[in-house]
Amino acid sequence: AQSVTQLGSHVSVSEGALVLLRCNYSSSVPPYLFWYVQYPNQGLQLLLKYTSAATLVKGINGFEAEFKKSETSFHLTKPSAHMSDAAEYFCAVSDWGNYQLIWGAGTKLIIKP
Amino acid sequence: NAGVTQTPKFQVLKTGQSMTLQCAQDMNHNSMYWYRQDPGMGLRLIYYSASEGTTDKGEVPNGYNVSRLNKREFSLRLESAAPSQTSVYFCASSEVPTQRADTQYFGPGTRLTVL
Known about the structure:
The structure holds two protein chains of two kinds. Chain A is mainly β. Helix content of chain A is 0%, strand content 53%. The model of chain A has no long low-confidence stretch (mean pLDDT 92). Chain B is built from no helices and eleven strands. In chain B, the strands form two sheets. In chain B, strands 2, 4, 5, 6, 9, 10 and 11 form a seven-stranded mixed sheet that branches. A four-stranded antiparallel sheet of chain B has the order 1-3-8-7, with no helix packed on it. The N and C termini of chain B lie far apart (36 Å). The model of chain B has no long low-confidence stretch (mean pLDDT 93). At the A-B interface, strand 4 and strand 5 of A face strand 5 and strand 10 of B.
């Protein structure tokens, strides 16, 4: 069965530093891949998604993610963290023939001043 | 457009009480979902409705029932609330999936506490 692993339940970076949030999936066939962001006390909002076009996907708020088939990864990056990026980030996967999204456990991003 | 709306935003129940969480979407989506979110456990699917008139169990359906009232509305009912159902509940909607699930759009959530 498809699974999604997000390394690190909490990631802490300094303001202005690189943000790297890791996501690995288990499918042998390239799936659709999603990153969502959840700000405190809010619902989830789509950051970006990969649907087998360009491997480097740009999203909102300066985030981007790169699909690497050989590594079965879809890590989320941002060159320079802002205080407003503090939130929880979820990776999700959609497999061929599966009408449900498979969710990672989430990574809470903490920004240090 | 309001997107996906959920009512109520907060609710406190006593064990054994019942309640219905309401969800509506104005994006003309065919598919709707109910999730619960608990600390450290991510999102878990309770029930979903691929299209009007159909509902299916997700990962954690026990203790819940759903009704797809029409294309816009999808409600979640707790018949006899238990403390284990204390959680944040999210409703989501999407276009009808063709070969696979696609982008889901989420409501703001309902924070439920069962005493």
